[in-house]
């Protein structure tokens, strides 16, 4: 008996493109997974025999995946993220079928995920994909399937894939100026659009709509150039493009002034958005899921007047829109804004020679400017509604200029060598001649003095020297301590061992330095020791022990 299969397409009112193939989970119910053509899927999975237990079992799995995806979207997860996860799941089940893991039980799926991670690790090792891409793929699959199968609980830590953390690179003064300059030009362009745009032009009945911005004429209706008289509402003519550009320009103003994320800004609704006037600022409250409570951010004084002007604009020209930053579709009306509109605005800016800065970077720049003005990371983090650690890891721009200034200030106030004429230590490095112990929890460091060779090891005033003489001296001192240690046969921890470890730590820095000259110094110093050519400071002591 032929039975019509169930509908395996993920459906939800938040999905703006429900007909996209990524929402159809029928391929998972077919033997070839995501590699199956749509025609094959229609023939094989839309109808099947009632005694075909294999197809029926796959249908059950696909139904569980569909239910979980719809639950995630319904609970507030990003539609884009869920759609991407479903594409990853389809790729995984293609691998599952190709390698014939059998039925979809927890044991088979767990083994298949692990093997698939090894497959992706091998591809990354051969540089066919990036290691981070492989990590994100397996992480997406395991996270999604853990929610579908309660007993699975697969952890990506069980695999050889590791998350890569890119070190933040400091920006030079020139690069810092370029970034700020590009952001400034984009911000000024958006500001010119918001201020020079006359809303009455939307209902004037004439096209195109042209304004002055960036010292040039800007056509907000894009391709249309000749003057045209129209009798229709602006929602049904090319004037709708001008409305969308006006709103997009306001989005960038909002992101820069409030330091908010793009996605939460798009989710803001006028009906649930509470504005409370506090003198020269607005206090705005909105629930933010990942923080688990109320979030407070303020619209600052310089932006208050312009934001109120924007709200008045919406009241008159988009009264039936529930969104704070709506997108107008021709003949259809207002809907929620998406990233696609940002891509369109990028092309619009580049057309008029305006440098493009994506919204996430635009927000980062705004937050870093605030941090520089306040000279306080906590103030900038609180204003943007996240922790200081989050700001440091994801938002802060390391600045070489700021680092140089801060280091200079620190040493000006704390370097003891600035007080009195510097002296020279036993290792030919600068010193103030006043021994002072460093904090040592183990209490096994020698007591600092300016007499014995080991007296520099535990001294706060000791400084390294960037020279070959210094490296040669350290190697000679280490050789001296090795000879000294070999002359005392005991199982107890020898004082000379501490000195050797101290020198090894300093040599490690020179060996791993990106400056090739440092590495050459290490090689030359080691060669001199092998040849018996010791630094004059230590040569007599070494000859005494050897003699």
What does this structure look like?
This protein is 50% helix and 9% strand. About 2% of the residues have low confidence. It is mostly helical and 547 residues long. The longest helix is centred in the middle third of the chain and has 24 residues. Helix 3 crosses helix 5 and helix 15 packs parallel to helix 18. The protein folds into three domains: 157 residues, no CATH class; 167 residues, no CATH class; 124 residues, no CATH class. The strands form six sheets. Strands 7-8-9 form a three-stranded antiparallel β-sheet.
Descriptive terms for the model:
547 residues; mainly alpha; three-stranded antiparallel beta sheet; two-stranded antiparallel sheet; 18 helices; 13 strands; extended
Q: What is the approximate shape?
A: extended
Structural class: mainly alpha
Quaternary structure annotation: single chain
Rg, Å, rounded:
34 Å
Q: Percent of residues in helical segments? A: 40-55%
On the 0-100 scale, what is the average pLDDT?
79
Low-confidence stretches: 41-51
Q: Counting H and I runs of at least 4 residues, what is the number of helices?
A: 18
Fraction in beta strands: 5-15%
Could you tell me how far the N terminus lies from the C terminus, measured between alpha carbons in angstroms?
A: 101 Å
Strand order of the largest sheet: 7-8-9
- Main sheet characteristics: 3 strands, antiparallel
- Count of individual domains: 3
Count of extended strands = 13
